[in-house]
Amino acid sequence: MDEMSIPSGTSEEVPGAHLDAIEVAPEPGQEETSQPPGEASVPVTSDGFLTFDAWHAGFCQAFVLSGTLTGLATLRGAPEAPTSEEASRAIYDTACETPALHWLVKPGMKWLQRVTVIGAFALPVVVGCRQELKARRQPQASGPIAPAASEPVPEDGAALA
């Protein structure tokens, strides 16, 4: 049977609040995992970062997704650029070396997931706004130019002098 620890002195102000702090110990011989059940495991380095291959695959997918959402072929094709892997490696190495950027290369990447969701919303909005503003700046096509209607022109042309 699993060991359970129930903290003493929990408040009953919120129904069931005493259950939030219950921790179940793993079965003997079972490893603890921080990964939610059902999620695929991702390869990590000894430092706990994604491997470069896993990072680079996500890097490329971000461009393809952005290009698909916006309809911009340049974004979709960015992973095929000759310098794509070098750029990806530079970002990866910088993120691994900079504690403030570790969120980019940690499995689960909660912050990167949030930024991706925000970007998936914001990028098409920005592209749409740019298209609208560009359309406003272009001169509007008008119909044929009509003569000024200040004075009627006589049919015999007598007033044309």
Description of the molecule:
- This protein is mostly helical.
- Helices cover 41% and strands 2% of the residues.
- It has a two-stranded antiparallel ribbon.
- The protein has a domain at 40-135.
How much of the sequence is in beta strands? under 5%
Number of helices: 4
Mean of all residue-level pLDDT scores: 75
Portion in helices: 40-55%
Strand order of the largest sheet: 1-2
Main sheet, how many strands, which sense, barrel?
2 strands, antiparallel
Unreliable stretches, pLDDT < 50, 5 or more residues?
A: 29-35
Written as H for each helix and E for each strand, in order along the chain, the element string is: EEHHHH
SS elements, strand count: 2
Radius of gyration, in angstroms, nearest whole number: 32 Å
Structural class: mainly alpha
Which features characterize this protein?
two-stranded antiparallel ribbon, mainly alpha, elongated, 161 residues
Quick structural overview:
With 161 residues, the chain is an all-alpha fold. The chain has helices spanning 52-70, 73-77, 84-97, 110-137; strands at residues 4-5, 23-24.
Helix-strand layout with pairing:
Elements (H helix, E strand, L loop, with lengths): L3 E2 L17 E2 L27 H19 L2 H5 L6 H14 L12 H28 L24
Antiparallel strand pairs: 1-2
Helix pairs in contact: 1-3, 1-4
